[in-house]
Design brief:
By secondary structure, the chain is α+β, with helices and mostly antiparallel strands.
């Protein structure tokens, strides 16, 4: 049975994980993506390396957004600049919290 612990919550972005099965849940509004630990690390690294100014494209509503691919090639996420800042902050915070939980487990 899952025991969910929060890792980060910034505006519409919520990231948590199960302390037993180690699945990480990335929630954004009505979308939930589940990651295995290594998949989440890889996703986090790709978010960290992407810069809004270089990756943004103009959408039909004339707003700039970055497009973030997921493990399913048919599903992509998109974020405007403010949302992107939230995603980057939440991912960084979640990664740090994962490390804290790991250290607490070792102690």
């Amino acid at each position: 049975m899952c025991e969910i612990k929060g890792l980060s919550a910034i505006n519409d972005i919520v990231i948590c994980h199960c302390v037993h099965c180690k699945v990480v849940f990335f929630w954004n509004k009505n979308v939930i993506i589940n990651f295995k630990q290594e998949e989440f690390r890889s996703f986090s690294r790709s978010i960290e390396q992407m810069e809004f100014e270089q990756a943004a494209v103009i959408f039909p509503d004339e707003k700039e957004r970055v497009i973030v691919p997921t493990a399913d090639s048919n599903i992509n996420l998109s974020f405007d600049e403010e949302e992107w800042k939230d995603v980057q902050s939440a991912m960084q915070e979640a990664s740090c919290m994962q490390e804290v939980y790991e250290l607490m487990k070792l102690g």
